[in-house]
Design a protein that fits this description.
With 247 residues, the chain is α/β, with parallel strands linked by helices. It has a single domain, classed as Rossmann fold, CATH 3.40.50. The strands form two sheets. It has a four-stranded parallel beta sheet with strand order 2-5-3-4, with helices on both faces. Strand 3, helix 4 and strand 4 form a beta-alpha-beta unit. The longest helix has 33 residues. It is globular, with a radius of gyration of 18 Å. Keywords: Acyltransferase, Membrane, Transferase, Transmembrane, Transmembrane helix.
Length: 247
């Protein structure tokens, strides 16, 4: 009975979220076309709504831990759920995301991503994707801020492991910026591939910065270790104990 009720509430949540995304996208659209501030206001409003309704409708309480960076840094983040995108976006003062190239052609969303200064890359063409990232960063098309990238390149279900890609290191090396890793357990409550949302304490944690200057091997090893260990700790705190020996 309880599970059936949670399914009903989850479906209501998903449907009303889709309606609000469309409604806010249309209302803010003229302002977003004129100014990036309009795009930022729209996305902040939607993220606030989605996070707030997640708490009272499906029982997901969101928390941000750690020191949120305010300067120009890289944000390599664990990606388990659409929820962690919204929490990270709302927490950062000037967020920019590395995103799938195809999203540029999504009605309304593509315009917002472009106006926010997100960096589109083509999946499956790693060399071309890295060059595109560097070109956008070096050309100044991406305004100063926090550039978020998902080192594993996709949402990773809780308990699964996907190898880390080299993209974060290339940006770290070429920009000379520090990297602030981010851990999360959001996938426990808003998992990939289902409409079911389960109650719980979802956390996004900004970890200690990795200073500029490391070589690729050292950087990638440290990045993976701190993100995976941090995410595993958050998941264990919420009641999930990941299997060991997967990495």
């Amino acid at each position: 009975m309880r599970l059936a009720l949670q399914w009903i509430l989850s479906i209501i949540y998903v449907v009303q979220n889709a309606i609000m995304m469309l409604a806010m996208g249309i209302v803010f659209f003229p302002w977003a076309l004129l100014s990036p501030r309009g795009a930022m206001a729209a996305c902040n409003s939607y993220a606030t709504w989605a996070i707030w309704t997640a708490r009272w409708l499906v029982g997901i309480r969101c928390e941000v831990r750690g020191e949120v960076p305010s300067g120009a840094v890289l944000i390599p983040a664990k990606h388990q759920s659409f929820l962690d995108i919204m929490v990270i976006f709302k927490a950062l003062p000037q967020p920019r995301f590395i995103m799938k190239y195809e999203l540029l052609f999504t009605p309304i969303i593509g315009v917002y991503a472009w106006r926010l200064g997100c960096v589109p890359v083509r999946r499956g063409k790693r060399g071309a994707a890295i060059k595109a990232m560097l070109a956008d960063v070096e050309s100044g098309r991406v305004p100063p801020g926090q550039l978020a990238i998902y080192p594993q390149g996709t949402r990773v279900p809780v308990g699964d492991y996907v190898p880390y890609k080299v993209g974060p290191y290339v940006l770290y090396r070429e920009t000379g910026q520090a990297a602030v890793p981010v851990a999360t357990n959001c996938g426990m409550f808003w998992p990939k591939g289902t409409m079911l949302r389960t109650p719980g304490h979802a956390v996004v944690e900004f970890l200690e910065p990795i200073a500029p200057g490391l070589d690729q091997k050292s950087f990638m090893a440290q990045l993976e270790e701190v993100i995976e260990d941090g995410s595993n700790a958050l998941m264990a705190e919420a009641g999930f104990v990941p299997e060991t020996g997967d990495r």
